[in-house]
Amino acid sequence: MMDWPQGYGRRILDSVDSTNAEAARIAPDLAGPEWILALRQTAGRGRRGRPWADPAGNFAATLVMRPNETPDQVALRSFVASLALYDACVAATGRPDLFSLKWPNDVLLNGGKLAGILLESAGGMQGVSHIAIGIGVNLTSVPEAGALEQRSVPPVSLFSETGLRITPQDFLDLLAPAYARHEASFQTYGFAPIRKLWLSHAAKLGEVITARTMRQETTGTFETVDEAGNIVLSTANGRETVPAAEIFF
Q1: What domains can be seen in the chain, in order of their start residue?
Q2: Given a cut of 80, is residue 151 above it in pLDDT?
Q3: Is the pLDDT at 46 greater than 70, yes or no?
């Protein structure tokens, strides 16, 4: 392991139902943040309860932490994780020009979906007891076309686009220190520098996109991401702020 970050645990599992589910199981006994890498997931899941296809050789991991911020601040770690993924991909390939970040939590490679992030948290009136940052990366292969939502960004793999083969363990050794760097920045300086850096890698910034929620669609020019992590669109009806949505190009 090269440059494994101090204070972060690391456990590798041959098989598990879901790394996020495993995170929930171990969270009460954690002494510090811990990475869980599964070489195989039998019941991986994506956003909004969708199944996450997880072919052998791809990356499926979760970072579980016990944060002390308010829930709205905890949720901003999706941007921290996005930046860490970007850095890990660039470190693996040496090609920063190939990658971009799709709001709220995808990494694109040559415009196709390479990776996704799923944040899950638990807690109550006292705040967030733990957060699980689930990360899936198509290192070697992509899900079958039938598993894709209509109009979604087509998936790509690191191998198909760059010819690079990297094991999940080696990718974790790039991702973990990258995450630790951005987490340290987030804890020290807050969201502002994370937001600025994320926007410098943002896909379709300044272009027309569609934000779709369960209730409506909003189409407009992607203007920025605000201080709360919301996407801001310039539309025919003026400036609109969207806190959560699926984004289509």
Answers
A1: 9-200 (3.30.930.10), 208-248 (2.30.30)
A2: no
A3: no
